[in-house]
Every structure is written in structure tokens, then in C-alpha cells.
Amino acid sequence: MTLSRIYFSASEEFLSTAADELRPHFPDAWMEPLGSDIAVFEDEGVSIATLAETIREKQLIFPRHLMRGVAEIPHDETADLGEFGEIAVEAWQQLPLPPKVALQVWQSGDVQLPYRNDQLWHRLAAALSDIDVQVVRGGANHVLGACAVSEGIILGSNGVANALSDWPGGRVQLAKPKGQISRSEFKLEEIIRTNLAELPTEGTALDLGASPGGWTRILLNRGLDVWAVDPGKLDSRLDGKYGLTYVPMLAGPFLTQNVQQFDLVVNDMRMTPSLSAKVMNDAAQHVPTGGMGVMSIKLPPGHPLRIIEDTVAQLSREWDVEMVKQLFHNRHEVTAILRRR
Ligand SMILES: C[S@@+](CC[C@H](N)C(=O)[O-])C[C@H]1O[C@@H](n2cnc3c(N)ncnc32)[C@H](O)[C@@H]1O
Questions:
Q1: In angstroms, what is the span from residue 177 Cα to ligand 1's centroid?
Q2: Do the Cβ atoms of 167 and 145 come closer than 8 Å?
Q3: Which of 49, 61, 52, 64 is nearest to 9 (CA)?
Q4: Ligand 1 in contact with 251 (CB < 6 A)?
């Protein structure tokens, strides 16, 4: 079956929100979930390049990965791994194949395949090598994708720029760094590793809601001095760290008393979005023009787009909101990148 479909991925929790975000820009599109975190998008005349460009230009928050479909192979044809390799290559060859591709294999939801993901990857890589295509895992200009869903395996082929992310399904996999203090670290690490924003490497940072100290650890390692504010304790591995000032109190009273200036304010506090934005605006009084902010916006159940819109409007009194994005490592939250105006 030849396809002119595009597939978009978002987190499981916000797949329908990603469709809600796309809808106003593509009112005639047909969108339907195919797996837990992947949905099909069909709109006559809309190419993957147009879709990717719209997501980038309009700064959509939830769609994180795109794939242009070449075939959907039902599971009765995917059971034999050897044969499936031949079928996949035949499908991919319908479109011109460059000499080098990144091959991305992933599953959406609980799919029972008679082989493991890595076995599928190696079989597909071998079949591509047989036709003299060089296969890598990432960093090529062209991506071939194979995403297993409950109905079958979706095969895709597109340029990496149009994929939005060079990770299978946009799932940014980061190895746990030595000395990691908290899983929250992955969020800041993802911003850095995917070049979503360029965090400073010198000056003084304010970490609001710092405990147990994961973000503080990353910022200290980047070369910043860090004021870590949280009534909760910091991990003992941070004891006596050069450049660290620990302030064991709530953010509100700290900001009222504080006279220090900061080049960067990060805020990962578990707090309602409106209260957290108020704290960020209070913190802005201690940040010179051009200083940066990074804030996790924790989303309560219901109306995520409206809540984000209201929070952005509130933050805009003091900050330019450069970007709001749901990172792969965000759970019930999104991340805002701010610049002091
Ligand atoms: C998700 S944790 C932060 C994790 C941290 N980013 C890390 O990487 O280790 C949220 C923190 O916000 C703190 N918090 C919540 N309300 C606060 C407030 N009003 N002032 C300061 N800290 C607050 C909590 O004590 C908690 O330690």
C-alpha cells in the first residue's frame, strides 16, 4: 500500500492536545491516533515540509516528531523477520534513497512482536546494506523509520530537518550521568543537548525550588555560581561545592529580601502555573535585560493549551517568552525559555 500520510508523535498524555494545536492551522486535516503516542495526519496538498515549517514557525508546543509514511505493513506480514526486511526495503525504495541514512526503530504502546526492537533494527540495517545503503543510528540527513503499532509496522522516509527531532519518535534518550542527583536533571540536559536554548556558562544563577539539587549540580558544572533556594535539603554531594550558596527558605520571602543580581533564573517548583509565573516575575526584578529564565510549567488536569496561554500572558509582563516546548523528559508539564526584557 503506497501512502501519502504523515505521522506525528507527542507524549501519550498530550497526543490529542498536539492534534488540537495543529487543527487551527490545518482545519481540513484528518488526524487519528494509531498508537499510544503516534497519530496519522492527512491533508491534501500538505507536505511534511509544510507541516514541519508550521510547527516551527508557530512554535507549537506538543508535536515532537514527524515521519512521512511510505507503507503500513499489517502484522501478518511482519512476523517473519527475514521476509519483513525484504518488504521494508522494497517499500523504502519507492522513494529515492540517499547513500547514507539514519535508521530509527521504535514501538508505540504495548505491541507484541516475535522479535526484539534491536533485532528488528539489525535486520533492517542488513537489508539496507544489501542494496548498498550505509546505515547509522543518527546524524544523517535522511531518516528511515519503522514504528510498530498494534495494527502493524509503519514505515517512513524523510529528511531529518522535517522530522523535528533526530531521535526515534522524538524520544530523546540520555544516559544517566555519573553523580546524577535527580531525574529532573534530564530536563535541563535535554535543553542543552538538543540546542533548544543556549544556557550561559558564566555568571550567577538562581535555582528556585532547587532541592535535592540536580539542576544546581548541572549549573555549577557549567561554570555558574548558583544560589539554590528551597526549604528542602540539598543532596550531601553538593556540600561545600565551590560557587554554591544554599538558601533554605521559600522563594517568595527570599525574593523580597534579596539584593543579588542573577544572569539566569531557573524554576522547577511544584506550584500552580499562575503562582509560579508570579514568582518568576518577582525574580525578574533581580535580572538585568537580556538575562535568561527557564521554567517548568506544571500542568494540572484539563485545558493545557488555555493554561499555557494564560501563563505566557502573565510572564510576558516581565519576560519575552522565547519558547514553550514539551520536552521528552517533561511529564505533566512543559518548559518555558524566557529572556528578560
Ligand atoms: C521537582 S522538585 C525540584 C527538583 C530540582 N530541579 C532538581 O533537579 O533536583 C520541586 C522543588 O520545589 C520546591 N518548592 C516548592 N514550593 C517552593 C517555594 N515556594 N519556594 C521554594 N521551593 C519550593 C520543593 O521543596 C521541591 O524541592
A1: 21
A2: no
A3: 64
A4: yes
Q: How many residues are listed for the chain in this entry?
A: 341
pLDDT value, residue 306:
98
pLDDT tens digits for range 105-144: 999 999 999 999 999 999 999 999 999 999 999 999 999 9
Element (H, E) at 54: helix 48-57
Question: Considering the entire predicted model, what is its pTM?
Answer: 0.95
Q: What domains appear along the chain, each with residue ranges and CATH number?
A: 6-170 (3.30.2130.30), 185-340 (3.40.50.150)
Calculate how far, in angstroms, residue 269's C-alpha sits from the geometric centre of ligand 1: 4
For ligand 1, atom 23, which residue shows the shortest CA distance? 209
Is the CB of 336 within 6 Å of ligand 1?
Answer: no
Ligand 1 center–CA 172 separation, angstroms:
24
Over residues 63-78, the pLDDT tens digits come to 999 999 999 999 999 9
Decide: helix, strand or coil at residue 332.
coil
What are 219-274's pLDDT values in tens digits? 999 999 999 999 999 999 999 999 999 999 999 999 999 999 999 999 999 999 99
Question: Is 209 close to ligand 1, i.e. is its CB under 6 Å away?
Answer: yes
Nearest Cα to 340, choosing from 295, 284, 297? 284
